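Action item from last meeting closed. Structure (122 res):
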């Protein structure tokens, strides 16, 4: 089970920190990712972190202003984003796949959280 937290209303230009808590020791070795889906748009890859040494990968739209990290002891994955714009408004979901390798395709993830709404006001 994956449970996201940290969404809400954020001012444009401000920071955002999302957290995903995983239940189950197996998730400590899984690749974990964040996806987002804006109203009327397709689900979009945001960032991923591998399950072994934790190499991160980012979408071009957030690269340079985002950091994904994981705490294996706490079994959590966090996403920090800076310089938010209204285009970052979306439902952000945490996902996991039963392998150590990241994927940018949401079809490759078998575990999903319910998502958390992030709204960026201008």
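Sequence:
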């Amino acid at each position: 089970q994956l449970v996201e937290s940290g969404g809400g209303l954020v001012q444009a230009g401000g920071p955002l920190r999302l957290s995903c808590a995983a239940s189950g020791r197996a998730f400590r070795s899984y690749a974990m990712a964040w996806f987002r889906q804006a109203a009327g748009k397709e689900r979009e890859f945001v960032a991923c972190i591998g399950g072994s040494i934790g190499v991160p990968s980012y979408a071009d739209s957030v690269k340079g202003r985002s950091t994904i990290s994981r705490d294996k002891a706490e079994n959590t994955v966090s996403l920090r984003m800076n310089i938010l714009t209204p285009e970052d408004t979306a439902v952000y979901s945490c996902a996991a796949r039963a392998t150590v390798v990241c994927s940018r395709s949401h079809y490759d993830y078998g575990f999903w959280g319910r998502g958390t709404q992030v709204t960026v006001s201008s």
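Note appended to the action item: The mean pLDDT is 96.
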